[in-house]
Amino acid sequence: MPGPLPGRLSAPVSPAAPRRRVAVVGVALSDCGRVEGPTPYALHAQAARRALADSGLDRSVIDGFASAGLGVLAPVEVAEYLGLRPTWVDSTSVGGSTWEVMAAHAADAIAAGHANAVLLVYGSTARADIKARRRTSNLSFGARGPLQFEVPYGHTLVAKYAMAARRHMHEYGTTLEQLASVAVQARANAATNPDAMFRDPITVEDVLASDPIADPFTKLHCCIRSDGGCAVLLAAEDYVPDTAKSPVWVLGTGTAVSHTTMSEWEDFTVSPAGASGRQAFARAGLTPADVDLAEIYDAFTYMTLVTLEDLGFCAKGEGGAFVEKGRLLREGELPVNTDGGGLSACHPGMRGLFLLVEAVRQLRGEAGPGQVTKPGGRLPEVALASGTGGWFCSAGTVILGRG
What we know:
Radius of gyration: 21 Å
Order of helices and strands: EHEHEHEHHHHEEEEHEHHHHEE
Number of strands: 11
Shape: globular
Strand content: 15-25%
């Protein structure tokens, strides 16, 4: 065998430490919906305090921190505001999938021993800021770099999703009524969620008759705009005996990116959730058939439909038929967005962290009247959270379990 390498590398190398299991040990929402007064920083702090209290752990255990979307030096500014001095940080910003991607990074870091407990936190006053005219509604992500070739033509964010939806309708015969049924079922799920911003029932006809936004989307095909924040605390298995509640384990994660300019998107009917989902299922040793409920990013109805296809819950092109039969309802075959999702519950911006909070609450049996149960009243055992960023530019998938 070859001899040792010269220099410092000739020193003995200790074997890699065994990877630790990682659990979600604390989750919480800040005040959500119509929140007047508090700043985004205050919502971050409120959610963080509540998540820490939910975990039962002392703040001194937190040595990792992840945040995006606020401040010039995120997450440094937010950590300072919270009085934290982390030794592991993440500021990955890939839109709505940011938090699933961050959760994947945090789980890997904890498993490898680079951090012990990582806090993910988000807060936004998007609705209040527009109402107070502190900001305007964003029609695009900017006009620099590759985006400069699309922005002059008025191709807004919603228009990009709408064009993709039209392509799916053309390729597979997906109907407006099928897309509208996604919004109807999300609203039905929101009805029993006291934190949901909109809870009154709607019909397919209501969705189709609402104000046009970007063909084929009407207003009720699109997410609401709210204020709010949330936080998730992940920790190594070593800390689980000291937590206040039963752990929810991270079973598998996956991340992927696709495109930023529409001309580089090979197929408008395929999202990067296909790649992130395959990774997550393989790493968890599970299949879509093992999933009891799914929390899916739903800025628009089409996102839910195509993500379900790409994650393998139905075949490509069969999403329309899959969603129209009430399968997404809390009592349905595959409960989806059990809190009402971004279409009805809350959507303050990068909503991906809310997906993880709801998934954990469902697995713990803490969803109150909105609780999903299996036959015999048993709690669900496996939940999936799938975040989408940009206009299907990025995806992150996290599979969680009670076992």
